[in-house]
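Hey,

Quick one before I head out. I ran the complex with manganese (II) ion overnight. Inputs first:
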Amino acid sequence: MDIIVLSPGATERELKHIVKKLEGRGLRAHVSKGTERTIIGVIGDTSKITEDEENAIRVMPGVEDVMRILKPYKLASREFKQKDTTIDVGGKIIGGEKIQVIAGPCAVENRTVLMAIAGKIKDAGASFIRGGAFKPRTSPYSFQGLGEEGLKYLAEARKKTGLPVVTEIMDPRDMAILVKYADIIQIGTRNMQNFRLLLEVGIAKKPVLLKRGLSATIKEWLMAAEYIMSRGNEMVILCERGIRTFETATRNTLDLSAVPVLKKLTHLPVFVDPSHGVGKWDLVAPMAKAAVAAGADGLLIEVHTNPEEALSDGEQSLRPNDFSRLMKELKPLARAVGREI
Ligand code: PEP
Ligand code: MN
């Protein structure tokens, strides 16, 4: 049900006109006249009212406000599906009791470095390996990634370690080669509202790690998930990675409150990426711990064997030793919130 609040001076004629309009859309109006205000409760399937139609009602004479009770996203909503979604990726369950950790370099740089990192993160207890082969760099002069060659190295790292691969897609034209190598397709922050790309991964038969747009509200983020799900792919994992605020002490502001908020609004698994969230390696561990405490289903952490030589995001990458220590420190924390890691 939606609610229409009439302005104090609304006339009987205006009220009738609004009621007629609703009835014309197959809805019924429940009119409640108070001493100060008249309120209309809209009864029927209001999910079919588009945002444009809602705005048209908003400007009708006599209307002060329109409040939607039903969420604009449906498939992603907790109302639609109460039970938490779990996603099985090669026997690793995302969204279950175990907190899954995706680790690896920002970008796949070359075969030797990737293989070295893969061995280290596996030993430390990571469940997935990550690495960008197509990098969304702010500068066109920065390293753009190895493309398919990088994907091949990721597949080799998977063979060596058994860790499934998470890697980013930037262009719908790369879909065919990406699905050949990736176990989870990542949509980066800059593409969260690239609707063509969202629809494209919506027909893929692979889980999608959907990062939060750098200035996206939680509602916009869930609408992006809805795009993917509306095409039939319900294997969507949300990943908080920091949003843009006025603060400059950290690269972004990691919005950890998004985790419990999302847990209320959606059944989809929620991950946290403290690496991009803070942008500084020494702040990654405390925020990873806070993410686990907040109820995250997984973490995404950038790890590099030689951060000072990294071609991207070296300043926020953990060395294998620090990553390994963090994994150990997370264990009692996970237990404290009824999870394991
Ligand atoms: C990444 O995961 O390396 C990345 C580019 O992340 P984001 O899209 O969150 O900036
Ligand atoms: Mn990165």
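Residues 106, 276, 302, 312-313 surround manganese (II) ion (ligand 2) (CB under 6 Å).

Talk tomorrow,
K.
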